[in-house]
Amino acid sequence: GQNIDQPTEMTATEGAIVQINCTYQTSGFNGLFWYQQHAGEAPTFLSYNVLDGLEEKGRFSSFLSRSKGYSYLLLKELQMKDSASYLCAAKDSNYQLIWGAGTKLIIKP
Amino acid sequence: ETGVTQTPRHLVMGMTNKKSLKCEQHLGHNAMYWYKQSAKKPLELMFVYNFKEQTENNSVPSRFSPECPNSSHLFLHLHTLQPEDSALYLCASSQEQSSGANVLTFGAGSRLTVL
């Protein structure tokens, strides 16, 4: 079956760095997405990786290893506003999105 | 404001009621989606419309009935729901259904409680 695994919850300190891991098993692969969802708000797009390597966008970076079925989202210089859930989703050979259950990130002062 | 607007934001209904959720997008997208989001579970795709044609129905019970009158509007008609249907219902849109880099734009959701 198809599956996405990511930690349920993580805690980090303001100003620090945190890495949220995601492993996926899909029938074929057409890219991996990260979305951010603040409580009570819409999920918003953060990043898309289809080739191996690191994509950097300001304080946020996303990494992909297709051979390992693995991705991570790296958040630097954490701010209180980064407290949110982070959703990992992989697109299979039929372009269907397979979603993880999300990682709730708690930032402490 | 994401460009995808959902109403109502909160809805409480009894099991015998009939209600509808509405979604409107102002992004010029051609695909629209309904997702169900339950606590600590992955997003569940319910329905997809691509150029106003329904292309996905992921074994959703018939008590949920979608309607897409045009590419900007999507409805989810609800009747005889069960308490386990209580969840956040998210609407999303994208340029088109397929293609790898297709980014979804979500609405803020309609929080449904079934008593």
Based on the model shown, name its key terms.
heterodimer; A: 109 residues; mainly beta; 6-stranded mixed beta sheet; 5-stranded antiparallel beta sheet; 11 strands; 0% helix; globular; B: 115 residues; 7-stranded mixed beta sheet; 4-stranded antiparallel beta sheet
Rough shape of chain A?
globular
Radius of gyration of chain B (CA) equals 13 Å
User: Which secondary-structure class do the elements of chain B indicate?
Assistant: mainly beta
Q: What structural class do helix, strand and pairing data of chain A support?
A: mainly beta
Q: Strand percentage of chain A, roughly?
A: over 45%
Oligomer: heterodimer
The helical percent of chain B reads under 10%
Order of helices and strands of chain B: EEEEEEEEEEE
Number of helices of chain A: 0
What is the tally of helical segments of chain B?
0
Mean pLDDT across all amino acids of chain A: 96
> What can be said about the biggest beta sheet of chain A?
6 strands, mixed
Number of strands of chain A: 11
The best one-word shape of chain B is globular
Mean pLDDT of chain B: 93
The largest chain-to-chain contact, stated as pair and per-chain residue counts, equals:
A-B, 25 and 21 residues
Residue windows where pLDDT falls under 50 for at least 5 positions of chain B: none
- Number of E strands of chain B: 11
What is the N-to-C succession of helices and strands of chain A? Answer: EEEEEEEEEEE
Q: Which sheet architecture does the biggest sheet of chain B show? A: 7 strands, mixed
Span between N and C termini of chain A?
40 Å
